[in-house]
Amino acid sequence: MVVLKLSYFLLLLLCGGGVLSTQLCLTGDFDSQLRHLLSVQMGSTEDPEQIISRILNDVRDTLSQRWQGFKLIPFGSLIAGISTKSSDLDISFRLPNLNYSSSSNIFEEAKQLFQQQATLYTDIFVEQTIKYLRCSFKHIPTKRNVDLVFHLSKYSEEGVETSKLFKYLFNLDKRNNSLVRFLTYLFNTHEVASDDRQKLVNYLVYMLLIFYLQQKNMAPPVYVLQKDSEGIFVDNWDVSFNELPYRTKNDENLYQLIGGFFKFYSKFNFDEYIVSPYTGRAIPRSVFIDGYNPHEEFSLDNYFNRTTQFSIGKKLKCADLCILGVFLQDFNEAGLVTQENVIKFKYFLKSVAEIFKDLPNDRVLRAILVVDENKETITKRNNSAVDGMNDENCIEVSNM
């Protein structure tokens, strides 16, 4: 077994009020380095279930001062088993017989309840969209950010079921879990992904990875999981699924899979095709021109016969990037990503693919993680770059 050398130096970065980073010196091949990186960057001595339980108990006690009979249903990356040290917790608030047309009062009342408990909550703010009302805050005892979501009618099940699906797909194989953790970290390190919906949010990184795993026969298309499922409908779309046994014959290592991810997407024709984790196939954009027309991508799985009769082509808006979600098929999840950030995303894919092609296996990880001093994403590197690298192959890892 390769012995990895780790040098810890806690460095205070001049951003975000002091975010700690760790200097990590890597030895061994790419897979050994990556496993060690994940254990340092993603690992935590805290039990996610204990974190979730503590937050839920405090939030329940706080809201019980005003309401009874409500349910708190956690979802998101902590529930899906793909969280980092700083991942937030999403909670769906459900109150029987709540009139959503006049729910702004409950929204403000909840905010006031949290503000009254300064020892438990801080950084409290509220947000309203067409889909939900959200009260966000930091839970002081666990140091976790929390999004308490007051869902609006038909969307109440979608987030919860999606988290369950992520947990199932990303734990079919231990490599799947390593891939989603690392790719999320990498995309965020280079600011290709962030909480800003004008960039790729983490959800889009998950969609891209699921679709790639389907091409590698490491995850099933979602429609396969919905055959004979119980049927939970959101806006006429079924968000239920069955956790079917699934085994893959793929034996590629992480170096091959990550390199393959960037090679695959650097050549993917985003201008003409839609990424569809539901079907597990690239769908021509032309399918949705002038309204939906029956097409084999959907008719093969009989999806529309089960869920809806309306035309989705009139609702689906494909801009520079078109990525469908795992359940709802009339909404482009990448619809808010700006043209500038799509260009940056495509350049990022090609740049990382070139690094995998040009550099030795044991030098790739550092090369794709290093951010240029001007804060721009990766620039092209070739074999000559190896000579200029730190002999100890060290990187600074932010504690996300």
Report on this structure.
Among the domains are: 48-155, Beta Polymerase, domain 2; 169-339, Poly(a)-polymerase, middle domain (Orthogonal Bundle), CATH 1.10.1410. Helix content is 35%, strand content 14%. The chain has 13 helices and twelve strands. The protein has helices at residues 30-41, 48-63, 77-80, 104-115, 158-169, 174-189, 202-215, 222-225, 254-266, 296-299, 303-307, 339-358, 361-369, and strands at residues 11-13, 19-25, 71-75, 89-94, 121-128, 132-139, 144-151, 233-234, 237-238, 273-274, 283-284, 394-398. The protein has a five-stranded mixed β-sheet, with helices on both faces. The chain has a three-stranded antiparallel β-sheet with strand order 1-2-12, with no helix packed on it. Strands 8-9 form a two-stranded antiparallel ribbon. Strand 8 and strand 9 (237-238) form a beta hairpin. The two termini are 28 Å apart.
Helix/strand layout:
Blueprint: E1 11-13, E2 19-25, H1 30-41, H2 48-63, E3 71-75, H3 77-80, E4 89-94, H4 104-115, E5 121-128, E6 132-139, E7 144-151, H5 158-169, H6 174-189, H7 202-215, H8 222-225, E8 233-234, E9 237-238, H9 254-266, E10 273-274, E11 283-284, H10 296-299, H11 303-307, H12 339-358, H13 361-369, E12 394-398
Parallel strand pairs: 4-7
Antiparallel strand pairs: 1-2, 2-12, 3-4, 5-6, 6-7, 8-9, 10-11
